[in-house]
Amino acid sequence: GLSDRLLAIIQQATILVGTQRLLDYFPTFAGKKILLENLSGTLAILSTYLAQEELIVVLVTGDPLFFGLGRLLLNYLPAAQINFHPHLSSIQLAFSRIKVPWQDSRIISVHGRDLGQLSKILLQGSHKIAVLTDSVNNPQAIARLYLSLSLPTAYDLYICENLGSLTAEKITTIPYRDLNSFSQAKDMDFAKLNVVILLRRDDIKQKQLTPESLPLIGIKDENFLSFSDRPGLMTKKEIRLLILGQLELQTKQVIWDIGAGTGSVSVEIARLSPNSAIYAIEKTAMGVSLIQQNSQSMGINNITVIQGEAPAILAPLPSPDRIFIGGSGGNLSAILNICQTKLKVGGVIVLAFATIENINSSLAWFKAHNWQYSLLQVQISRSLPIANLTRFSPLNPVTIITGKLEKL
């Protein structure tokens, strides 16, 4: 409830603004009531009344400066003319109801937004995630999104409805093992005011990855360990498949993967050509560790991981039959120079870049050195569930450049 001080402020007001539900709490208010429906129109009216020195109270739930109306009020009205009196936020109430500390939680609003940012947070494996929902991005839509990502982490889902209501408050727990049936249930109805909490279950391990369970090619992105702060930083599955085709792999070859990152391309090559020797070159210690872990978990024993920065680290390596370049650290021309001297006749270089600058640098080098080359621009979208519907979510466009060394 409201304190006596706040009730006194409301009684002194000449104008009371809010949704019908909130205005109904003050049936005896003597001043003018304005229904908060058309937001821009209402804010324009408030600006006019403020110029007439009216005392206006705007009723909202929770904390107006936490994903609330406060930000919009500050955009429309002078800050000097606004005072805020926050109540407990829905996030505070939700965590208190499930009895979980929340100072380390990730908080996101999908109200009127797409689920892309929530996907990123889930891919990072965040321990506690609080989600402000809407009628489209409701608890079932969030469950479907989680399941569509096929994550190695398990989450329990809590639905907190009508928080603060003495009669209508409802807390529902959906254990992770029940998320599939919950996501497909028919005629689910949720209160308009609800918050979803996702809690990671560290005591439960999802189905363990085994080499036998993997496809020969086209391993899912989520099967690879990735950078915790940049979970999307890897060559995506669809792009890897095209790279494998452009490399024209044969058995018993020496293959360099320069700028190997998580090792996703190296692993795909190693599984497809187990008699070849793959050298994964990566300058970061974290990347080297990820390549080693991904190789081990997928039963790979023909990848040699080398920590160092190209081109200096390349000179001692065996001459390659194939080279893939996924990252250059700003040294692309120098890397290509040494690749040309080391690559066997008939060898192939494949590069995959997202930036125009790297593409231009590659083309300039190939032209200057009289190489034959071809480009493949790839623009791919993946399906993404939106409530009971499906839309396409685009991946970053990638250009794959292929050059072949016909003769020295």
Can you walk through the features of this model?
- It is a single chain.
- The chain has 408 residues and is of the alpha/beta class.
- It folds into 3 domains: 4-81, Cobalt-precorrin-4 Transmethylase, domain 1 (3-Layer(aba) Sandwich), CATH 3.40.1010; 90-200, 2-Layer Sandwich (Methyltransferase, Cobalt-precorrin-4 Transmethylase, Domain 2); 211-404, Vaccinia Virus protein VP39 (Rossmann fold, 3-Layer(aba) Sandwich), CATH 3.40.50.
- It is 30% helix and 22% strand.
- The protein has 13 helices and 17 strands.
- The mean pLDDT is 90.
Task: From the structure above, extract its key features.
17 strands, Methyltransferase, Cobalt-precorrin-4 Transmethylase, Domain 2, alpha/beta, 13 helices, Rossmann fold, 408 residues
Please summarize what this structure is.
This protein is of the alpha/beta class and 408 residues long. It has helices at residues 4-12, 20-23, 39-51, 70-76, 90-98, 116-123, 139-148, 179-184, 237-247, 264-272, 285-297, 332-342, 356-368; strands at residues 15-18, 32-35, 56-58, 106-109, 128-132, 155-161, 170-174, 194-200, 254-258, 277-282, 303-307, 322-325, 348-353, 372-378, 381-386, 389-394, 398-404.
